[in-house]
Amino acid sequence: MRRATRPAWALVAAAVAVMLAGCATPAGNRSGYEEETPVNEIVGEWQLTKGSDADGAWSINGAPVTLVIGDEAVSGQAPCNIFGGDLSVDGTGIRIHDITQTLMACDDDARNRLETRYIAALGKVTTAKRGAGVLDTLTLSGPDETLTFTIVEKKTTNQP
After folding, report:
1. How many domains does the chain have?
2. CA distance 22 to 24
3. What is the CATH number of the domain that holds 46?
4. What is the 3-class SS of 58-83, one letter each residue?
5. Beta-carbon contacts of residue 36 (< 8 Å; ≥ 6 apart)
6. Is the CB of residue 81 less than 8 Å from the CB of residue 101?
């Protein structure tokens, strides 16, 4: 009887190991993000939730900062001004360039500084990663820049 149970237990143990391996996160990807995200998966409207650059983390303090990503262009609301730019795609890498913006100064120096850092960071991003989970996030990053956004939900209006 012992000979019959040992192979059965070994088979059960092997099956459990295979099932658990299927649920595990791949070794190089423990962040909950895909390794690379195709740009067609990031098209939409996003709200900045946090950012950082070579000078450190940013204080957003409720500033309305958005990014609208299209197939070949971006636009949005910086802390003070609206902006737009071109979007180049190379595989899963992205480049935001030729950024233009309106020239209205904020009456708050902190928002002016945040805007300068935000626009500069957008011009330096090279990768995009979509987050997994309940809160749909997008992280754009470059050599020293990390911009984290949440998706802006589309609201439907009820027609009378």
Report:
1. 1
2. 6
3. 2.40.128.270
4. CCCCCCCCEEEECCCEEEEECCCCEE
5. 91, 92, 93, 127, 129
6. yes
Determine the structural domain holding residue 117 and report its residue range. Answer: 39-151
How many Cβ atoms are within 10 Å of 120's Cβ, its own excluded?
14
Checking phi first, is residue 32 left (phi over 0); if not, alpha (psi -120 to 50) or beta? left
What is the structure's pLDDT at 136? 86
- Across the chain, which has 160 residues, the per-10-residue mean pLDDT values are 42 35 35 52 91 95 90 94 93 89 89 95 94 79 96 55
Q: Which of 76, 57, 74 is nearest to 66 (CA)?
A: 76
**What's the rounded Cα separation, in Å, for the pair 22 and 53?**
36
Whose CA is closest to 131, among 56, 42, 1?
42
Task: Output the CA–CA distances (angstroms, integers) from residue 89 to 72, 100, 141, in the order listed.
Answer: 8, 19, 14
* Residue 82 is assigned to a structural domain of this protein: yes
Neighbours of 67 (CB within 10 A): 24
CB 94 within 8 A of CB 71: no
Asked if residue 157 is part of any domain, the answer here is no
